[in-house]
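Figure-free illustration: sequence to structure, shown twice.
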Amino acid sequence: MSGKELGNLGESIAAKWLHDSNGFEIAERNWRCKDAEIDLIAKHDDTIRIIEVKSRMESAKESIAASLARPKMRKLVKGADNYLSTRLNAAGEIFFDLVTVIFSKDMKSHSVEYTPCFFYPEWC
């Protein structure tokens, strides 16, 4: 399975888990603008959640933190700012969350880890 396919599968699992198990309303998937791509944009309890999804095999779990470097976070903030400026009904507090989907070596099972507010942007 390619990295892109693994990422797409992880995003689908994350969206379903957030919706079915936690009551999130998924507003957008893979929302793109000139400066960024946001994996999931959701509404939950009068808040807007900008959600980064990371999918990994259990053998590569330690690489997740390295993939969330400052430049990636800046892109998420730019993307969120662009999204909010183009949506008239996008109101509420904004949070940046992380969902990690870890797949077993044989791809027969996975775990989902949710980290609300995994970073706080400087402009808040």
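We now fold a second protein in the same way, so the two outputs can be compared directly.
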Amino acid sequence: MTTMKAIVATKYGSPEVLQLKDVEKPTPKANEVLVRIHASSVTAADTMMRRGTPFYGRLFIGLLKPNNPITGTGFAGVVEAVGKDVTHFTEGDAVFGESVLGAGTNAEYLCVAENGIIIGKPANISFEEAASICDGPLTSLNFLKNIAAIQPGQKVLINGASGSLGTAAVQLAKYFEAEVTGVCSANNVELVKSLGADHVIDYTKQDFTKSLGQFDIIYDTVGKSSFSKAKKALTSNGVYISPVLSVSLLFQMMWTSIIGKKKARFSATGILPVPALRDFLYELRAMICAGYLKSIVDKQYMLEQIAEAHAYVDHGHKRGNVVLSMN
């Protein structure tokens, strides 16, 4: 048996449940490509899956323990082998993508279906920069473009503007010609400004919810506010969007779908149809190649430092993205 190194979690818990082990190296099926992973992402969603929280998420990932013990979702690497029916990829292709509810990416190798969430990597970014595109940029593109229907000239507020979703959202909102206000800590004001934000609010000094009737879109990337708190800051037809689902947000979505012009909306980007997610990736790749979007990497860790990487993400103050580098 040929083996590879991978991060395995056989139970839910703290970062210490993550173990570096030798496991069987996968072999591509007829419709799959074998990717030698150069970098993989460590996201807030990954840490939630490690903890098994929120509990209803276990309906998808395993009730008592993870169904797929190898952790990680986003990846970037090079195609090492292809199945006999594969026509769109060849050995040596640099690729990136995401493995959703399947084999994890915190490993040396991964098999991905040719028609899965995988496309060619932009030549003008590193593997480390590409590994996180399926987290912040992909989710934020879905929320701003599809869920909020962003339009040129709108006023958009990004809460959590210095995180993975936030740094992408600031750039994307500017790409769609909106007027952007970023909310972050004082330490990250210059970063958010450098990404194109027209205004930056230090949340320790100013409460954005006091800005009466100012924003067409409030994108709460970190779920630290709520529709009930933020609705006064929305314009008469404004929308509050967040990828962090809570009972209150679920109720607010249902309530505002019936009553009132101001809306609360949520989307589980990762469970959208694969063709839709792949189309998002093509759109993001075009932006990256043209220089409209860049991936912000805060810290890089080696595979054996996975517990340290998760602990850092758990701390809640990362700037942009955290990645594992296999090199």
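Summary for the second example: Residues 158 and 182 are 5 Å apart (CA to CA).
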